[in-house]
Design goal:
With about 260 residues, the chain is α/β, with parallel strands linked by helices. Helix content is about 45%, strand content about 15%. The chain has a single domain, classed as NAD(P)-binding Rossmann-like Domain (Rossmann fold), CATH 3.40.50.720. A 7-stranded parallel sheet has the order 3-2-1-4-5-6-7, with helices on both faces. Bound molecules: nicotinamide-adenine-dinucleotide.
């Protein structure tokens, strides 16, 4: 359906489960090569073995914390060493830490900033240097959130980082645009992943009632949008945040809501 994916080399962080895993799998199905990063060794090894047997020679696993500079350097080396190039970068890993604003601790603040911002900033910086040197363009997709657009209870720190990623997207078109490298951002709405399932017993049912489409999002909804942004067809889409939320951010609260 979309072109320009086959034989391209992608780096995806936090790809052992959830949205990152769905993006990795969709890219592999479209014959791309993928450096998969994940922090959780136990989760990822069985999944990686499954992907590796289904798509031999198309994947490399690089364990580690995607917020650490050393791990980012290893991801870059893994792509270049194993596949000779970098075409797509998706800093997907993010930490969602709920907490009362008045009790939020500096160490938790640092944890969120390190992964959500430092991880994305330096992976993009280091990978795009290589893309520029290669002189054959590239695609970057950042992972924001609807909570970076609308206020959400007990998520101030996380939401700040997700809003910052939207600004990083806009800002970098100036630097990367002249090199045929596009940078865009996805803001997923409530999406049913292993983590969100554990957050609330009826996560899907609750969000189905709040989302105009009447359904919670799936990792594949996000992966399909990402595939488009990585494709040749999206060459002129640059600096944008695409909200994938079934319509949740399109509406506000109404007087009628108070009557229930
Ligand atoms: N699921 C949602 O509803 C939702 C909504 C909006 C935005 N997002 C964003 O989308 C991205 C993916 O969300 P998700 O729900 O699939 O994520 P998740 O929390 O389920 O994590 C996905 C994977 O990342 C791994 N991971 C965690 N910390 C890591 C680190 N420091 N380094 C490397 N890997 C790490 C986890 O072990 C997990 O396997 C995140 O940036 C998240 O903020 C998700």
């Amino acid at each position: 359906m979309f072109t320009g994916i086959k034989n391209k080399v992608a780096i995806i962080t936090g790809a052992g489960t959830g949205i990152g895993y769905a993006i990795a799998k969709l890219l592999l199905e479209n014959e791309a090569k993928v450096v998969i990063n994940e922090i959780d060794k136990t989760v990822v090894e069985s999944l990686y073995n499954e992907l590796n047997s289904q798509f031999p020679d198309q994947t490399v696993l690089q364990l580690g914390d995607a917020g650490e500079i050393e791990v980012i350097d290893q991801l870059i080396s893994a792509a270049v060493h194993n596949f000779g190039t970098i075409d797509f970068v998706i800093p997907n890993a993010g930490i969602t830490l709920f907490g009362d604003f008045f009790k939020f601790k500096p160490e938790d603040f640092q944890k969120v900033i390190q992964l959500n911002l430092q991880g994305a900033f330096f992976l993009v910086q280091k990978a795009s240097k290589i893309m520029i040197a290669q002189n054959k363009g590239g695609r970057i997709v950042l992972m924001s959130s609807i909570t970076g657009i609308k206020g959400y209870p007990d998520l101030t720190c996380y939401s700040m980082t997700k809003a910052a990623l939207r600004m990083m997207t806009k800002s970098l078109v100036l630097v990367l645009g002249p090199h045929e490298i596009t940078i865009n951002c996805i803001a997923p709405g409530a999406t049913l992943t292993e983590r969100t399932k554990n957050e609330e017993p009826d996560y899907a049912g609750t969000w189905a009632k709040l989302i105009p489409r009447g359904k919670v999002g799936t990792p594949d909804d996000i992966a399909q949008t990402c595939l488009f942004l990585l494709s040749k067809e999206a060459a002129h889409v640059n600096g944008q945040t695409i909200v994938v939320d079934g319509g949740w951010t399109a509406i506000g609260r109404y007087p009628n809501d108070l009557q229930e």
